Amino acid sequence: MLKEKKLENKSILIIIASKNFRDEEYFIPYEVFQKEGAKITTASSVEGDIIGIEGGEARSTLTLSEINTKDFDAVVFIGGSGAVEYFDNNDAHKIVQEMANSHKVVAAICIAPIILAKAGILTGRNATVWSSLMNKNNIKELEDSGCSVLEERVVKDKKIITADGPAVSKKFAEKIVETITERKVEEND
Fold it and tell me: CB of 154 within 8 A of CB of 163?
C-alpha cells in the first residue's frame, strides 16, 4: 500500500535571496516537501537561476512583488548571508504579514527570522535565530522586536517556525510539514 503524502493539495512558497542563499536550508526542506507531495514555488527578488553559497542551483519562477499569498499554505524564508536583502524589503514584509494574518504557516531559518521580526510578527512570540559566540546581533534584533529568543535549534510558536541554521534543515522542514497538517485549530494563532 502506498504511503499517504501529507502535503498533497498543499502549496509551499520558498523564498531565497538573489545570491548567497544557504544551499542546505533550501535543498533539504525542498526534498522533504516534495516527498510529501507539496506543490513548491521558489521565489526571489529576481526570476531565473540563482546560485547558493555552496554552488547549488535553484530556479526562481516568481519575484516577491508577483506573489499572491492566497495561493500558498506556507511561506519559508531561507537563510544564508544573502537573506539580508529582505530585512528591510517591503514586499517580503507584506508577504509575512499577509500569511500570518491568514493564519498560515510562516517559517524562517538561519538569519531569516530577522525578516519576520522586522515585519512585526514576532512581538510576544518565541523564536530562534543564528548567532555565534562572537556575534549576538541577530538575537538582539529579535529581542528588540519584542520576541523571546530561545536557545533551541527549532522553535514553533503556533504557526510561526524558526530554526538557527543548516544543521537542522531537515528537522525544520519536518516541523513545517507537521504544522501545515495539524488538524487542531489553535486559539489566537
Answer: yes
